[in-house]
Specification:
13 strands, globular, alpha/beta, single chain, nine-stranded mixed β-sheet, 6 helices
């Protein structure tokens, strides 16, 4: 079964508290999404394989560590996932960016993919799917399936806030995909929103409330 990595760090906890506040401005909310994205990316890339390359420092030659082989592809789930991309790219500037667009059936709450654009070599890359919230898990499940259809074998899911319902769905459907999150909240309400949560992350990122 996949592992859930919860960021046990004061900075993440503090920044999430500001994000949860309904009075936090759009700009501050957007900035915090990016900042927490950077912090979670640091943890999510801890096991990336390294090799060495020959360089010369101002003092002497040396064999220095560098990321081995193909690098990262970050895959935001549109639209809210876009808020995390900048933070990931600040940590991994060479990462490629794919996009998955989905809409949710208002009756079944199940997602439907309407757009998916990836680098040609996506199957050879470490894939980091990003979305602020892991609620029912439907969108994340569908996004992981889309990546697997394209031959991806090394996939991780990165979110700001998750709930047990969403975690269970991903662990059941994709036991090979680890989950990285800033916090695990209590539950989903009758409308499928995380409690206490952040509200609608897309609306709060883009100011479309």
């Amino acid at each position: 079964m996949s592992t859930v990595h919860v960021m046990d760090h004061p900075l993440v906890a503090h920044k999430l508290t500001i994000m949860r506040d309904k009075n936090t401005s759009v700009k501050e909310f957007r900035d915090l999404v990016s900042e927490i994205g950077m912090l979670i990316t640091y943890e999510a890339t801890r096991d990336i394989p390294l090799t060495t390359t020959h360089i010369e420092t101002p003092i002497c030659p040396m064999e220095a560590p560098t990321i081995a082989g193909k690098k990262i592809a970050v895959v935001p789930i549109l639209r809210a996932g876009l808020g995390l991309v900048e933070g990931v790219l600040r940590m991994i500037p060479s990462a490629r960016v794919a996009h998955i667009g989905m809409y949710r059936d208002e009756e079944t709450l199940e997602p439907h993919t309407y757009f998916c654009k990836t680098p040609k070599d996506i199957a050879e890359r470490e894939v980091l799917i990003v979305d602020p919230m892991l609620a029912t898990g439907g969108s994340a499940d569908a996004a992981i399936c889309e990546m697997k259809k394209r031959g991806c074998k090394h996939i991780k899911l990165m979110v700001l806030v998750a709930v047990p319902e969403g975690i269970r769905r991903i662990q059941t459907s994709h036991p090979d995909v680890d989950i990285y999150c800033g916090a695990v909240d209590s539950h989903l309400n009758e409308h499928g929103y995380i409690v206490p949560g952040l509200g609608d992350a897309g609306d709060r990122i883009f100011g479309t409330k």
